[in-house]
Write a structure and sequence with these properties.
heterodimer; A: mainly beta; 4-stranded mixed sheet; B: alpha/beta; Purple Acid Phosphatase, chain A, domain 2; 13 strands; globular
Chain lengths: ~120, ~325
């Protein structure tokens, strides 16, 4: 398949430039898809998974599965901030820089979670 | 509250006598539990001279001395206008029922306090609907404080434009009626990750100044959306800096704290402070810790209105505390 070949080529390229460490999700097996988008579920007043580790460049898509609105807001309230998400509404944010991003629901601040970008 | 006391209180059949007043506050654990047991089914609790009495609504002497006061008002809460999920697809109908209940009270209330979550999603149409429905109430005076659902997306700007006339900061204020001092507080703004409700330094400073000139015999009613006592912090049911606020109220002989947010009625007494939460007019939430989350609780349709309600509060001059009466929407 063309895609598989392209990914393998990317993995080789990254490895050649020293960007592809052992934890890199690219090229683990030739059939893996690139981790370009990852889902986080909001359910029962919690983010799931509560901690998610992704490579830089990944987009996270949050979906609210509760009967109550929630938000997705970075702890500093500026890096990323969703509008209020009613049931089944979604929010996406692309993480370009490595780091640990703690976030919470600004309506129910006991709901906390984090994204670790490698 | 340990397990032994819990078991005893169940076995004792919730006697009216105060058996263990460990805190010398006129309330023993059994008395507190008894009040809790009535909560949600229609309860009346009153403290007179430090003695807590509770009655079921059916046994309450309506029209008797205790229901007639110098000042009577009603608290409603958590209308969540716009909510349309299974827990209650008709929040308009239940708010109407709450207003009918208000209009049927034996003593017409002087005014209504709405302790927040007027709307579900802060949409203008949701606020408009509540305002329109409240016009049918026997009293036209309604005092609001915001819930977290009323300040979504705009840091409370719309709320302030609609309800904040004459208020300070994000919407706090005080007023006097018949010798009772009322304080409306805002604890749903600028919430911090991992935290609870928050009043903030500016509001606390204002509160300290606001109550300073009052004599200690002035009855106080403090109302805010999120409980100002630690109901269940695991679910965010408390306010981080409420202890600071309550320290300014310590010297007063009668303090009644009215909150919403938890969609069920509960009562707690600490010294001269009576804490009370009102039921929602929209949907019930589970008892603390008795569900995976505090989300809307689905109950059979014929039970819904037994878990929603209004709170009637009466002040009788010369009596120690205000009488707080919960009634459901059946």
């Amino acid at each position: 398949m063309k895609i598989t070949i392209w990914i393998s080529a990317m993995a080789l390229l990254l490895a050649a430039f020293g960007l592809g460490g052992p934890s890199n999700t690219f090229g683990a097996t030739p059939d893996d898809k690139p981790a370009s988008e990852v889902a986080v579920k909001i359910d029962n007043f919690s983010f799931s998974p509560a901690t998610i580790t992704v490579p830089a460049g990944t987009t996270i898509r949050w979906t609210n599965r509760d009967d109550i609105p929630h938000t997705v807001v970075s702890e500093d309230k500026t890096t990323f901030k969703s509008k209020v998400l009613d049931t089944d509404e979604q929010f996406t944010h692309t993480f370009t820089k490595p780091g640990t991003y703690s976030y919470f629901c600004s309506i129910h601040p006991k709901m906390t979670a984090k994204v670790v970008v490698q | 509250m340990n397990e032994k006391n819990r078991t005893e209180s169940v076995k004792s059949g919730l006697s009216d006598e105060i058996l263990h007043d460990h805190n010398h506050d006129g309330v023993d654990r059994r008395g507190f539990l008894k009040c809790m047991a009535w909560a949600g089914t229609g309860a009346f609790c009153v403290i007179k001279g430090g003695v807590l009495k509770s009655y079921s609504l059916s046994g309450f002497p309506f029209g008797g001395h205790e229901s007639k006061g110098d000042l009577s008002f009603v608290q409603i809460s958590d209308s969540h206008m716009g909510f349309d999920k299974a827990a209650n697809p008709d929040v308009v109908g239940t708010l109407k029922a709450a207003i009918d209940k208000i209009n049927a009270l034996p003593v017409p209330p002087a005014f209504i306090l709405h302790t927040g979550d007027i709307s579900h999603l802060s949409k203008p149409g949701e606020f408009d609907t509540v305002d329109q429905l409240l016009k049918a109430a026997s009293t036209k005076d309604v005092f609001f404080v915001p819930g977290e659902h009323d300040v979504l997306n705009d840091e409370g700007k719309q709320y302030l434009e609609r309800y904040g006339k004459g208020s300070h900061g994000s919407g706090w204020y005080s007023f006097d009626k018949n010798g009772v001092h009322f304080v409306g507080l805002v604890n749903v703004m600028n919430l911090k990750a991992g935290g609870l409700g928050s009043l903030g330094g500016e509001q606390l400073e204002w509160l300290e100044k606001d109550v300073k000139p009052l004599s200690k015999s002035t009855p106080l009613v403090v109302f805010a959306h999120i409980p100002l006592w630690s109901v269940y912090p695991e679910w965010g049911w408390g306010t981080d800096d409420s202890a600071q606020a309550l320290s300014y109220l310590k010297r007063f002989g009668s303090v009644t704290v009215l909150n919403g947010h938890i969609h069920q009625s509960m009562q707690k007494v600490e010294g001269s402070v009576t804490f009370h939460t009102a039921a929602s007019t929209a949907f019930p939430q589970p008892k603390p810790g008795q569900a995976p989350s505090p989300g809307p609780m689905k109950v059979p349709a014929d039970q819904l209105r037994t878990l929603l309600g209004i709170t009637d509060v009466n002040h009788v001059p010369g009596q120690h505390a205000l009488a707080v009466i919960d009634s459901n929407l059946v």
